Amino acid sequence: MSLKDIIKPFSAWSNVLKDPVTVKDPLNDRPGAPRYRGFHQNDVEECIGCGACSTICENEAISLVPVEGIETTDGDSGLRPMLDYGRCCWCALCVDICSTDSLKMSNEYTWVDEDPEVFKFIPGVDKKHWDDNELGWTRPGDNYDFNERKRVHMPELAPEDRDKSFVELVQGYSKEEAQKEADRCIECGLCTATCPAHMGIPEYIAAIREDDIEAGFKKLYETNPLPEICGRICTHKCETVCAMGHRGEPISIRWLKRYIADQVESDEYKQVLEMDSIENKESKVAIIGAGPAGLSAAYYLRNMGYQVKIFEALPQAGGMMRYGIPEYRLPYDQLDKDINFILELGAEIQYNTRIGKDISMEQLQKDYDAVFAATGLHDGRSTRIPGTDHEDSYQAADLLRDITLGKEVPVKERIVVIGGGNVAMDITRSMARLQNQQFGKVQVITTSLESEDIMPADREEIVEAREENADIRPGWGPTEIVIEDGKVKGLTVQKCLSVFNKEGKFAPEFDNEDTDFFPGDMVIESIGQGANLSYITEDIKVDLEYTERGRIKVNKNFQSAVDWLFIGGDIIEGPDVIHGIANGHKAAVGIDNFIQNKNK
């Protein structure tokens, strides 16, 4: 024992001459300590109703309830936590786990009332006098987290290992990496609500955590028969609303989906999904186009027992997934893994068959009980600036298709790409690889109207394009393809000041005094794709209904005004694989209802 320990008890005598402190009204005049865990506060504007607080509460003192004036939106359940102080033990776990830091505890701890029901209240909605109290329990600090903020890094090939070939870039998670990433999920379900196919995302992530791949695979196939494809190229809108993204990085939902799909071999699909046999019905359905919507519809219709035949204009199935997305993003063997299972279930595909040329719509109507048109957006759109009619001016969609078909693609030493979306990045990176193979260097300039912060391309696509030495220059509007002595010399541009007006409509404004010139020997346009609906004859078109934007109008099950004709996919909702898959599923349900009612 030290001398200090011996002397310390006698130091209390220093308080003998001090006046005692008396609290005359302890009920009202004794405030809690600054970090006391008192009654809850909640910033209802910041709260997203994820339910993490309710899930962690072992006393079931928190329930989520709807609140008038708060609507359900992407990333917000529209619900808010209600506290029951008959159950609450003030442990503060709800505050510690809150994904948005909206939930706190004041240091107020006295509340007197004769009605026990009033002790159930919605913080931030049922106003209390402690709402503005700045003291109380909050999360202790940035390093105090129940869940890891950063996502598990996805292994990728280094730029120097990928920039001369079309080998797959993303390598996939190991079991340990997938389980570590899955462990970050709080199972709020906001992702499921946002996903166009409403996939059971929390459930299949939980299956990874529990190492139950079969359960996860079954959950994928409930709403998505193209998991290998979607696990690689889905636009992952679900991740934009992930609760974990408010304080850190969102869960890698797309990569976890891919992990499950990669673990199941193609010859195991039927066994895992318990699909030994399908009883065939007499009714037949024709599908035009073997893209995501058409393949999805074929899968669900076959499961219902319908005889399904897909008519595909190109030599292989996949639509724009095969003929518009480069193999370094979506390898053909993984694409075929999903497609071959649909064929194994009994769906047929007739290739190299163009409806309207090889077979008429009238013949399809005669031979089939219903028709689902899902032909996609294969035609490129042009800026129509001077010079776009030159032989060295190309459309991205045409070149990407030719690369897949194995055709010889023109490759110049200097290339300019116009566009800021994912297709523009796809053609930029594809041409950069071909340049590197042929010339040993990359000279691609890609320019877009949009500034970088609003470019529609996925952020990783832009970053990876730059890693592969492409020159991305956002914020410029093309004015003319310069041609000298019959040859393309480059593209003149002017600074784009804004792309959309105050109403959010496309109405770009430019500074024509601020110009530049991008040298190039060929120019590739990638400003969007259009549909070719020439296969729908005029006598059918006159009976269809159209939206204000000129698209064919369909109901919730993608049935058109011509009752036997269902239309879905990109030609209805725009280019997005997961929307196409969801469309195909809903169309299959609609077709089943239509045929059942017709056969009554």
| CATH topological fold name of the largest domain | FAD/NAD(P)-binding domain
The CATH architecture of the largest domain would be 3-Layer(bba) Sandwich
Give the rounded overall mean pLDDT.
Answer: 94
Pairing-aware structural class of the strands and helices? alpha/beta
| Total domains | 4
Distance between the termini: 96 Å
Q: What's a concise summary of this model?
A:
The chain is α/β, with parallel strands linked by helices and 600 residues long.
Please give a structural write-up:
By secondary structure, this protein is of the alpha/beta class. It folds into four domains: 22-137, Alpha-Beta Plaits; 159-272, Fumarate Reductase Iron-sulfur Protein, Chain B, domain 2, CATH 1.10.1060; 277-378 and 552-598, FAD/NAD(P)-binding domain (3-Layer(bba) Sandwich), CATH 3.50.50; 379-529, FAD/NAD(P)-binding domain. 31% of the residues lie in helices and 17% in strands. The longest helix is centred in the last third of the chain and has 22 residues, at 577-598. The radius of gyration is 30 Å and the shape is globular.
